[in-house]
Amino acid sequence: MTTGFTPAQTSQWVDGFIATVERAEPELTDLDRRSGDGDFGTNMTTALRRTRDALVRNPPRDLGDPFETMSTTFLSYSGGTSGPLFGMWFREFAKAARGGEEFGVGELTEATANGLATIQRLGSAKVGDRTMVDAIAPAAEALERARSDGADLAGAVDAALEAAQRGAKGTSELLGRKGRSSYVGEAALGAADPGALTIALFFQAARVVVGRRSG
Amino acid sequence: MRRQFVNDPADLVNEALEGFEAAQRGRIRWNRDPSYVVRADSGRRRGKVALVSGGGSGHEPLHVGYVGPGMLDAAVPGAVFASPTAIQIQAASRAADSGGGVVHIVKNYTGDVLNFRIAAELLEDDGIRAEAVFVDDDVASDTGDGEGPGRRGTAAVIAVEKLCGAAAERGDDLDEIVALGRRITSGARTFSVALAAGAHPGQGRPSFDLADDEIEFGVGIHGERARQRHPFAPVRDLVPEMVDRVRDPLGLGRGEHVIAIVNGLGSTHDLELYAIHRELVQVLAKEGIVIDRALVGTYLTSLDMAGCSITLIRSDDDLVDLWDAPVSTPALTW
After folding, report:
1. pLDDT digits (tens, 9 = 90+) for B317-326
2. A14-48: pLDDT as tens digits
3. Domain ranges in chain B?
4. Where is the DhaK domain (chain B) (predicted)?
């Protein structure tokens, strides 16, 4: 039974996330075309490719390094508003992991809660505004519950993933009030928010590393 | 068809910054990556509050032209009409800080506001205090409902940089400078008109077309159209209408004092700008509004847009003293 991600596993998590988003790029781009200006997928994969290059140049040594590198890359290169917000999201994971030996349920819950607070403060988006917050908020709640129920790592990751996916899917029925989709209104209905979907992909990459709940 | 003096348009911002640095004889340094411009003179007092501004390129001489004694300590240029990144702003602020903290002067646009706010959080972890003054003087983008991104920031930012820069040189602390910046901003409004849009480097066409008999009334500085067209008219007819737009929201009345900025938006000639200022002087004289100080010229552009803006800023003795204090930057010196 694993109690937390080891340094090798946080690396695998980030590598897996990069590969997952690259595979999903056509879908993310298509969703963004229906709800925004169509550059979301390209911006994400450009920043993630730079992350991969930076990780090759400076291989991670600390538990938090993979998140730290991803955060700095997004804050350095990505324009628009969702890129810098993703940078701040990964930064909370770097902070929670920094100097630790493993990234367990406590760290995961803390990083997700702090990430939610930071993104809401900076982006002033609420639940229901059709943004990445719609995936993060239910994941944060699910993790709090999992932690107080004493769930193991796989159980907590599963709960976060399920909640984030449900939240992301739900954005297809929301009218945008913040972000790009606020300009197109009802034209975006039926398409999920690509930022929220990317948050779900982030938890999905975590689950691939820990494996499914054993029972 | 527009043409520009460029090599590869994608290299223009960096090539311009390289040329800008070379022209400053070592007084200003350009850091290439992350890109920012910082004072390199030795006259900076330990503990002086540092002033940092930034925003998209394409508005030159803003902001890099205002780096120097009496104004900014650093400026952070983004790509053309795009916010600089948080990491650029953080690096510039670290380079500018001399122990007194940093004031960020930010034109109110979603991307700029977000990246400066993120930079302030990153700086907090560096042990550097950064507070922002958001400049939102553009009357035409005032929706009045408090929803959305709010009024855009335009030429009043020059006054905020000049006046706060002087306050920092005389030794005001961070909280005083932030309060001063916010006071100037709340008493400042700008209205802009255009005869022709600017064209992006490497693009042959301007970002919008206008008929010969109309002007864009309430135009922005990023190639976006105004909500209104207006019939083309002589300056004696246009200027009073522009003044109305600026004066009313400020509630300026007889006997009140202002600092005025008549600014060219890129390709409007000084001859025209002085003619506009002449009209402004006459209109305000008629209304009993006193112009304490005026700045007339090309200080904030929207690439090669043909157009102008009129800014009025509520003034008082303290602001006049700060305005008159010496300043020595590439684009503003006295």
Report:
1. 999 999 999 9
2. 999 999 999 999 999 888 887 766 788 888 898 99
3. 9-186, 188-322
4. 8-332
Token digits of residue B71: 């104004």
Interchain CB distance below 8 Å, B118 and A75: yes
B9-186: which CATH architecture?
Answer: 3-Layer(aba) Sandwich (3.40)
Inter-chain CB proximity A81 and B34 less than 8 Å? no
- The pLDDT tens digits for A67-76 are 999 999 999 9
Report the C-alpha gap between B28 and B42 in whole angstroms. Answer: 11
Low-confidence winner among B138-152, B168-182, B212-226, B254-268 (lowest mean pLDDT) = B138-152
Measured between CB atoms, which of A76, A81, A122 is closest to B111?
Answer: A81
Kindly list the residues from chain B whose CB atom is less than 8 angstroms away from the CB atom of residue A71: none
Taking an 8 Å cut-off on Cβ atoms, the answer to whether A76 and B114 are in contact is no
Residue A121 distance to chain B (closest CA, Å): 10
CB burial string B179-195: b at 16+ within 10 A, e below: ebbbbbbebbbbbbbbb
Residues of A in contact with B86 (CB under 8 A): 75, 84, 87
Q: Are B173 and B201 in contact (CB under 8 A)?
A: no
Q: Which of B98, B92, B95 is CA-nearest to residue B78?
A: B92
pLDDT band at A214 (very low <50, low <70, confident <90, very high): very low
Candidate CATH numbers 3.30.1180.20, 2.30.40.10, 3.40.50.300, 3.20.20.80; the one for domain B188-322: 3.30.1180.20
Domain assignment present for residue A186? The answer is: yes
When pLDDT is averaged across residues B168-193 and rounded to a whole number, the result is: 98
Nearest residue, CB atoms, B86 vs list A75, A80, A118? A75
> Is A15 within a domain?
yes
Residue B121, chain A, CB below 8 Å: the answer is yes
ipTM (interface pTM):
0.86
CB distance B38 to B51 below 8 Å: no
Contact residues, chain B, for A77 at CB < 8 Å: 85
Tens of pLDDT, residues A167-195 = 999 998 887 766 656 655 666 677 899 99
What residues have CB less than 8 Å from B84, skipping those under 6 apart?
Answer: B35, B36, B54, B55, B56, B76, B77, B78, B112, B115
State the pLDDT at residue B44. 74
Judged by CB atoms closer than 8 Å, whether chains meet at B86 and A87 is answered as yes
Neighbours of A3 (CB within 10 A): 12
pLDDT category of residue B254 using cuts at 50, 70 and 90: very high
Report how far residue B154's alpha carbon sits from residue B314's, in angstroms, rounded to the nearest whole number. 16
Q: How, if at all, do strands B36-39 and B102-107 pair?
A: unpaired
